[in-house]
Amino acid sequence: MSVSLRDVLTGEDVFGYIHRVRGSFDSRLYQQILGAANAFKEGDAALGIAAADEVSRANARALLARTKLGAIHAHPPFEDRLHAFMLEGLDGEMLPRLADWSLGQLKHFLLTAPEAEVHAILAGLGSDVIACVVKLMSDAELTSVGARIFHPLPGSKLGAKGYLGARIQPNSPTDHPDDIRWQVFNGWSFAVGDVVLGTNPVSSVPASVAAVESALHDILVTFGLTEVMPHCVLSHIDVQAQVEAEQPGTTGIWFQSLGGNEAANRTFDVTIEKMVRHAAGRTGKFGLYFETGQGADATNGHHHGCDMLIHESRKYGFARALKARVALAQLGAGRTPEPWVHVNDVAGFIGPEVFRTREQLVRCCLEDIVMGKLHGLMIGLDVCSTLHMDVSLDDLGWCQEQVALAGPGYLMALPTRNDPMLSYLTTAFQDHVRLREKFGLKVDDRMWAFFQELGVIDAQGKPTEHFGDPAWVYLQYRRRKGDTRSDAEVLAEAKREMAAVRERSVPLAVGRGARTYDLEPSLETELRALYEDAKAGLWSELSESAVAQLSDGVLLRTCSEDRRDYILHPPSGERLDTESELAVRMLRLRQAGQWDAQIVISDGLDARSLMDEGHLKPFLTELRRELVAAGWHVAPEHVVVKYGRVRAGYQVGELLFGDAEESAPRALVHVIGERPGSGHHAFSAYLSAPSARAWGVQGRVDHDITRLIAGISDTSVRPEAAAREAVRILAELAASARTEPPTVGGSVEARGA
C-alpha cells in the first residue's frame, strides 16, 4: 500500500486538502500526507505511508510548503506524554511569533538567514515542524543548512564549524580491558579521538561495566585529560548510575538510547520520569549522551502510524528537553549552566527494512544532522551499514564524503570499518585522516595540542614517524605511569600485548599504506576477507543434519517465505506460521505443565554460528546441566525455528507458558545466530523468565524484560562460560518475576511483537 495524491488544488495547504476530500479533519490521511512528503525509504513503505510516485511526493511537499507552523503545532501527528514533555524545550513567547510562517517560508529562512538569526528562532520550532521542513529540502539544501548552523560543546571546538570530532568506539567481543585500551592507543596514534571514548559492552552486568569504565577512566587520568573529554560505557543508564554509586568518580558522561514515543522508550526500559531523575543528577562538567536512529520505533512496533522522520525528530525533542533539565541541575548546584549534552545518530544500523541503498543512507544522515541542529543539539553520526544492506565497504567512503560537507559534529572511529563486536560497518581511524585532508577539517584544539605533545604529529600538524604506531602511545602511557624500564622493554611488552589483542580477533591498524589514510595492505586484505565471509554467512541455511543432531527436535518455521524474504522483511521472521503455531500448542499439551524452562534455537542472520564445531553443542550441554543444578525443570525438546527472529521466541513462550492463573516464573532461552561480520560466527542467547501470567499477555514479554548474552563462540565468549552466565541471569529474572504485582497480566499495555 502507498499514498497517491493527484487532485491537489493551487494554493491549498495540508488541512485545506484534508477537509476538502474528507469533509473534516482525518488524522490518518494527515499521517499519510506527511509520510508521502518524505524521500523514499523502505521503512516508510512498510507502513503504507510512502508516496506512490514522484507526482504524489511533489504534491505532498507542495501542500506542506503552504501549511502554517501554527497549524502543524496545533495538530500533532500523534500525542502521548513524551510529546507533552518535549514542549518544555520550547519558548512560549517565540511560538506565536512564528505561527503564521509557512513551512516554505521557514525553509527559505533557514537557507538564507545569517546563523545568528537562525539561532534566535530555534526555541520556537517544535519537533514536528522541524521534521516537516526537512521533508521539503533536497540533499543539497540539507547540506547547505547543516553547513551553516553549529552548536559546539561548552568550552570546546567540538561541533564547531570547520571541525570534525571522533568518538573512539573500542569494542571488544569479550569486554577485555586490554582490547579496549589498545584501540584507544591506536586511535590516538592517528590523532583521532576527541569527543568521547565510548565502548558498547557485551555484558551489562554492573561488575563488567565497572571494569570497562575503570579501564577508560584510567587512560584519561593518566594522560591528564579528564577535563578535556569524557569516557562512557554504553550500558543502560541505570547500570551506569549503579556503577557510579558503587565506585564514585569512575564514570564519565552517561549514555542512553532514546525512542520517539513512550512505547518505544519502554522497549529500552526508559521512562520520562527516570530520565528526568538522571538529568537532575548530572551537575558536573559532563552531562548526557544519547543515541537515536531512524526506524527503531517502527521496527519495534511503536510507529503510531507515523513516518520515521517524525519519530526521529521527536527523539531530538526529548534530548532537547533533557538538556534543559541538565542546565537546571547545574544551575541548582551553583555551576554555570553549560550542559555537555550531545546526540549520536546511528544511521543504518537496523538494516534493509529501514533503507537499503547508499543514497538513502546519505539522505538519512543529512536529514538527521539538520534536525539535530535545529533542536539546538551538537549531533554526531554513525554512518554505518549492516551486511544485509546494499552498501559496501567502498560505498561507505563515498557516504562519509557526502555527509562531511553538512558539518556533523563527529563520526565513529575504529581500527577498521568493521566493528569486531557489533558486526556492522562504520568509520575507521584512517577515514578521519582522509576527511581531514580532503576538506581541511580540524580536531578539537585541546586534543590537537595533546596529539602534538604525544609526538604523533609535529608542530605543523604533519604526521611524524610515530603516526599510526599504538606502541609509541603505549610507551608514553607507561612513562606517565612512572615506568622506568627501557624503551626497548616497554615496546617489547607492547608487541606482546598487541599480539594478544589480535588473537582475540580485534584488529589494530598499525602503520599505513601508500597514502596517509590507507590501511596497511595486509589489514586491508583481512578486512575484505571478513566482508566476504559475512556475505556468505548471511545467506547460509541451517542444514537438516544440524537439526538432526539436536535431541527431541521440534522443527518450526516463521512466516518468511525464504531466506531473502527473511532478510529484507524482518517482521516476517517474528511470527510463526499457522502450522508451527499449531505444533507449539500440541507440544504444550504433550508437556502437560511438567517443565518450567524451554530452549529455543533459531538460525538468525548466520546459521553457521549454530553449525560450527565447538559452538552450540558445548553451550547446550553446559546449559542443561546448570539449569538442572539450579532447580529448573528443563523440557527435553529443542524447539528449532527456521528463519526465526527474537520475537518468534517470545511467541513460542506465550504459546507454551501463558497462564492467567499462574504466578511462578517460566524461563525461555532463545539461542539465535548473530549478524555476521566479526569472523567469530557468533550466536546470542536471549533470556526471559517472567511469570506464566505475564507470558499469557500477548506482547508483554519483549526486549525490555529480556537479557542478552552476545558474542558466543569458540573464539569470543566461550559457550560453557556463556551457559553458566545465562543460568545466573535467569535466577535474577525469576526472582524479579516472583515479586510481580498480581495484576501484571492484565494491566500492562501490550507491546507490538
From TrEMBL:
Leading EC class: lyase
UniProt keyword annotation of Nucleotide-binding present: no
EC numbers, comma separated: 4.3.1.7
Keywords associated with the record: Lyase
GO molecular function: ethanolamine ammonia-lyase activity
Superkingdom to which the source organism belongs: Bacteria
Family annotation (InterPro entries): Aldolase_TIM, EutB, EutB_dom_2_sf, EutC, EutC_C
Protein's UniProt name: Ethanolamine ammonia-lyase subunit EutB
Species for this entry: Pyxidicoccus parkwayensis
